[in-house]
Amino acid sequence: MTKVMPPKPPARPDKVPLWRYVKLFRQDILSAQPARLYRAWMAEFRTPFFRSFLVNQPDLVKLLLKERPDDFPKSDRIAEGLKPLLGNSVFLTNGADWKRQRRIIDPAFEGGRLKDTYPAMRAAAEAAVKRLEGRKGPVEIEGETSHAAADVIFRTLFSIPIGHEVAGEVFTRFRDYQRSQPLLNLAAFVPLPRWMPRFFRGGTRRNAETIRALIAQLTAERMAAIEAGRAPDDLATKIMTTRDPETGSTFDTAEMVDQVAIFFLAGHETSASALAWALYLVALYPDWQERVAAEAAVLEDESFAAVSRLKNSRDVFRETLRLYPPVPMMVREAACSEHFRNRAVPKGAQMVLSPWHLHRHERLWENPNGFDPARWGTENGKQCQRDAYIPFSAGARVCTGAGFAMVEGPLILSMILRRFRVEPVAGRAPVPVAHLTVRSKNGIWLHLSER
What we know:
Blueprint: H1 18-27, E1 42-46, E2 51-55, H2 58-67, H3 79-86, H4 95-105, H5 113-132, E3 139-140, H6 141-158, H7 165-180, H8 204-228, H9 235-241, H10 253-284, H11 286-295, H12 311-323, E4 330-333, E5 338-340, E6 343-345, E7 350-353, H13 355-358, H14 379-387, H15 402-419, E8 420-424, E9 432-434, E10 438-440, E11 445-450
Parallel strand pairs: 2-7
Antiparallel strand pairs: 1-2, 3-11, 4-7, 5-6, 8-11, 9-10
């Protein structure tokens, strides 16, 4: 097996002045953190503006996410960078608003709905393979996986392909938005008065407004189709016609725009990130690539049942989510004072949960920085999957679309590798950075050759 290690950004020196940390943070939140976080159970950060605690200890992660989620709600500051696009979506809300939204959204992803959406998902995968046919020279694969994942979202949500005029415009605008907006900006940690204007990088607010206007157009058209009795039975129709079992209310058009925005972000951006890294990893590890390609023969069966036989592809995708979790950090807020690991945690402190560090924790995982899809069959892998693996978060706020993603990712990966062999481009190793998700600083470049 090759000795090449998957790319990992360099850590900063353990102690740097605040101004230096701010500069590094603005460039990339991953490389702005010290190496000790890969071994620490908990780390405290103090500045004149805030106190935050990064938590890696499994029982504390479980307490925050599963046992006492209401005592550690999602920090309002997380909305600072994402509010222009996501509005009052389920990703940003807390309390009664969030619970109502989940009661309406969750049924769309339950039971047989995955099976119902599979034909649209497979059609998007086939279209992605077709777009790659005949490509010459190095291919920037992040752009291709973004296109494929966006196609999946539009086909499953609104029954339209990415070639649809509005869908294509949303995708183009979102690509620009993604590069201009980090997942966490400094406002996520520095408390600013509500009256103080928020400043964003060039084009961020303008792109967000355009995306929301386009989504509003699609949503209004679907509302009209539902009222006329001619709406397709897709995810948008299911969500827009589901009533809150407690209040009997449904989402109005404005609320639905917020939710569609997060479906597009969560369902497209995260899948695109994971797929691109998965393809790069199998390019580095051709033995795993060949296992996935050989296994993909089961997809001659076009039924949903074939997906359950993609074991190697699923393990590769799961390992990719460990090494490159699309959402590398999550922020909660202590609703009351606490005492963790002999440290006083004041009310209002920011509690940072970092899948990026937890998934590579040196005291938990065997070979934490290596690519080893076989680990999921080992005792260490099984234990860590229970205690230290949260690519979709965990507990009450676990991503609604986690099951969707674990069908989509292995399917598209298998469809591409069934048709193409992928190899890394010499001298163009990707450098992970955090934009909205974990992406490569200068793209992920691969050579593709048809099998």
